[in-house]
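Input (structure):
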């Protein structure tokens, strides 16, 4: 991957990777026309529709965890405006990291979401969100 890509290009790649992950699991994926919805795509799970927002993950320096932003950012009247996503707008965030996709319910997210791959160096265990608990293949088994 080219290092000089802008955030929109990186986001497009994440969106395509995550849509492909759903397709490989046998789900139909629907995309809205234009770029004006709060969700990136919809997954049809046997007639039940889930609104999905994809977000690009970034890792910590030590590779023990990764996180993604759970809000959008745009300009209005020359000012940067941040907007958190709500349950009325989307059902899940999806991200990919190291060729694995993760699906996280919107109500479990704040301004960002960190998923841990390795134990914390300070041995903290309380409040940890383990990445393995959000693997796409496991979450969609309950659909």
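Output (sequence):
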């Amino acid at each position: 991957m080219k290092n000089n890509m802008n955030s929109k290009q990186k986001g497009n790649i994440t969106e395509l990777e995550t849509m492909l992950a759903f397709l490989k699991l046998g789900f139909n994926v629907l995309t809205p026309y234009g770029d004006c919805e709060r969700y990136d795509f919809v997954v049809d799970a046997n007639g039940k529709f889930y609104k999905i927002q994809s977000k690009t993950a970034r890792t910590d320096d030590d590779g023990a965890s990764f996180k993604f932003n759970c809000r959008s950012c745009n300009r209005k009247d020359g000012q940067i405006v941040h907007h958190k996503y709500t349950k009325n707008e989307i059902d899940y965030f999806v991200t990919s990291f190291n060729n694995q996709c993760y699906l996280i319910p919107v109500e479990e997210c704040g301004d960002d979401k960190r998923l841990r791959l390795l134990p914390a160096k300070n041995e903290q265990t309380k409040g940890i969100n383990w990445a393995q608990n959000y693997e796409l293949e496991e979450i969609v088994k309950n659909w």
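Notes: Helices lie at 7-24, 136-139. The mean pLDDT is 89.
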